[in-house]
Amino acid sequence: MKTKILGIAASLRNARWGIGNRQLIEELTKCHTEAELKKYLDQQAQLHLENFIDAGREEGLSFDETYKNLKKLKGNRGLSNSEVALAAGLWSAEKSGCEIEHISLSEYFPANGVNRKIDELKDHLRNADGFMLSTPVYFGDRGSLAQALVDDIQNDKKLQTELRDKIYAGIAVGAKRNGGQETTLIYQLLDFVNAGFLGVGNDSDTTSQYGGTGHAGDVGTMSRDDYGLETSMGTGRRISHVASIAKLGKKTQLKGKVRVIFWVLQDKQNQALDYVNEITEQFATEIDPTVIDVTGKYISRCLACDICPTHIDVDNVYRCIIPSGKRDQMGDLHSQLLNHDAIIPVVFSPANREGIASNYQSFIERTRYLRRGDYVLGDVLVAPLLLEDLGVNDNMHIRMLTSMIRHHTILSKPMISYIDNNKMLNSSIVKNQFKDYVSTAKVLVSGKLKSFADSQDTGLSKYNPVGYILSAEKDKEDEKLKTRMKMTSDRNNKMKKDAQSRLRKEKLAT
Length: 510
Hints:
- This protein is an alpha/beta fold.
- The protein has helices at residues 19-29, 34-57, 63-70, 81-95, 118-127, 144-154, 157-163, 181-194, 226-250, 271-282, 330-333, 360-366, 368-372, 396-404, 427-454, 469-480, 483-509, and strands at residues 4-9, 99-104, 130-138, 141-142, 167-174, 198-199, 212-215, 258-267, 287-293, 342-349, 357-358, 381-382, 385-389, 410-411, 415-420, 423-424.
């Protein structure tokens, strides 16, 4: 049974609903090439503009009158700007081997505010393995239809349980190139991972950032934004890959331990480190931990050089331009950062910052060479762990999530422990969240092991140096020398051998 990706259009201007949802999917599957897709999207965008003209724009009717006329249509002609971007994502998901479906939230949350057919909407969510939510930007945030969906999920604990660990990805369309698309995607991402979903962005063929970012002002203009379409297609490929891994993992059950690495990046009097050690002892039968206390290391600031990484080589070779030695210890940590199933960045944020030890920003900056080295940390499950004195509100979990998604990782719910007068107020909640995190990691590890052991298509990602001209030129030279091929082959072989070895151990344990 194929992995199913649900496309959710969250605009009151949507052109497709009812029978038009199914017709859109049929039309998309008939586009066999990207050129055919873009031609189709342009035609549909122009049809939606014609819908507006026919509904009253040409006659100079007020927008509310025009909108009423639009709602009288059959919902099977044209595509709104948000739908154009979503359709691009769905097309690439289908081309990645997934089953696709499209729904319009305006059917369930109409403009008059009277919600309808909510049980039907929830069934669509339950039946999908992952979904892409496409929304227009309002003041740097998602629209009210997207908010209504978030509210419905958060207010239904049974539904939340049923949807746990489904894969989420976002697409945002704004009237300006930098019109709040990324903030919109970040807010949606936070909501959905906090509701128990796993969050992903767009893939490495584009920018490996927060999702699809479309630029469209007037009706019918999204189809002209090639960059926005590319990021939307990248989002479709990314969610397809991760949702397929998760689906495969749910069919098996990992009996071995999950390899979890803790990065202790900010601390005071070892409070974070002590808590990590406590957690690792309590879950000793479930995880194989590696704990790195970065706070006492000397980590130089990133130079943002134009040759990052310094050269193409196998993963276990340190390739930052800053040499490892007495003046910098990043190279000493390099080998410890590799080959883990899950990453937990750890921070303690005290109210009294006197005596705090922090290498947070320097360390995160310095992982740049790992990202640009073809996403060494790709597909690893990430969840921040925070210890925070009550009232501090450092927002470190937001910074961690938005930085770590750039590594092509999979994001899970942040674990935040609130402290008052040196007493942890929600200790049991955090430990339950960690238990859930380990359970989720097992599913993803099972899926990846099965995928690597059985398939030639490993999903390894290549860094695309968008915006780095000098790096792009250097990359061409490295390609000529075929060193990247050697590196990819080495990583692929190691991962396949590791997968086969761990699966053999699983069978013996059974």
